[in-house]
């Protein structure tokens, strides 16, 4: 099955640093989503992007829908220890209704040193 | 509280011993899905269901079965587990027109 290439695979940073990660695909998507998985929990939706070029923020998080519709970026500013977790991108082609399928990236593991 | 509940959270079993992982959601969602998470591979879809009695294969369905007899429940069945099915499993659900997937807390399965 199709997968998205997500990088970096892991990041180990100091508290207060900014973080950038990205996701690329050989296919275009109509929607890009970013999820965060806390240790021992399931993924939770952070940001949803619906339009090429769109830039959306959620607190210290900012995500962008690439112009080519084949990539997306997530930035975290001034990281804090609770940002620790695995971040997943997901692309979706909207066929309408319940048939929409999400393709997930391989994940970025973020560790934040206090 | 809106949630997806999976049981058990942890399971250790032996090769060939049939097992079932249960999944239940209380949000009246039509769509439910099972994923497995493996290091470096992200989340891969096993099976999904668009509604009661409607199920279909995802990307990695081999060795798994599902059923959807009721809207709220979507159990994952491993008839004859093998060590390569050792993984972290997630159940998820969403409404018909809503792309936001709600995930369960996961089931860590080890097959010896």
Task: Describe this protein's structure.
The complex is a heterodimer of chains A (114) and B (112). Chain A has 114 residues and is mostly beta strands. Chain A has no helices and 11 strands. The termini of chain A are far apart. In chain B, the strands form 2 sheets. In chain B, strands 2, 4, 5, 6, 9, 10 and 11 form a 7-stranded mixed β-sheet that branches. A 4-stranded antiparallel β-sheet of chain B has the order 1-3-8-7, with no helix packed on it. In chain B, strand 4 (31-38) and strand 5 form a beta hairpin. The model of chain B has no long low-confidence stretch (mean pLDDT 94). The A-B interface holds A 1-4, 6, 9, 31, 33, 40-45, 48, 88, 92, 94, 97-102, 104-107 and B 4, 30-31, 35, 40-45, 50-51, 58-60, 90, 92, 96-97, 99-101, 103-106.
Gross geometry of chain B: globular
Main β-sheet description of chain A: 6 strands, mixed
The computed structural class of chain A is mainly beta
Instruction: Report strand % of chain A.
Output: over 45%
How far apart the termini of chain B lie comes to: 36 Å
- Please state the oligomeric state of the protein chains shown: heterodimer
Mind describing the biggest β-sheet of chain B? 7 strands, mixed
Gap from first CA to last CA of chain A: 38 Å
Radius of gyration of chain A: 14 Å
Mean pLDDT rating of chain A? 91
Number of strands of chain A: 11
Extended strand count of chain B: 11
């Amino acid at each position: 099955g199709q997968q998205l290439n997500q990088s970096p695979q892991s990041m180990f940073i100091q508290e207060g640093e900014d973080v950038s990660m990205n996701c690329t695909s050989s296919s275009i998507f109509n929607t890009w989503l970013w999820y965060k998985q806390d240790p021992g929990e399931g993924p939770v939706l952070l940001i949803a992007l619906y339009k090429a070029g769109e830039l959306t923020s959620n607190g210290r998080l900012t995500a962008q829908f690439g112009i080519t519709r084949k990539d997306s970026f997530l930035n975290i500013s001034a990281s804090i220890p609770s940002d620790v977790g695995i971040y997943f991108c997901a692309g979706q082609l909207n066929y309408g209704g319940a048939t929409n399928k999400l393709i997930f990236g391989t994940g970025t593991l973020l560790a934040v040193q206090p | 509280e809106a949630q997806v509940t999976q049981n058990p959270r942890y399971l250790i079993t032996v090769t060939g011993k049939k097992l079932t992982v249960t999944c239940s959601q209380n949000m009246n969602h039509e769509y439910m899905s099972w994923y497995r998470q493996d290091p470096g591979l992200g989340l891969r879809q096993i099976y999904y269901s668009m509604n009661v009695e409607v199920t279909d294969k995802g990307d990695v369905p081999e060795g798994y079965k599902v059923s959807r007899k009721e809207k709220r429940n979507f159990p994952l069945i491993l008839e004859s587990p093998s060590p390569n099915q050792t993984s972290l499993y997630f159940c998820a659900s969403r409404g018909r027109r809503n792309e936001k997937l709600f995930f369960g807390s996961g089931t860590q399965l080890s097959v010896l």
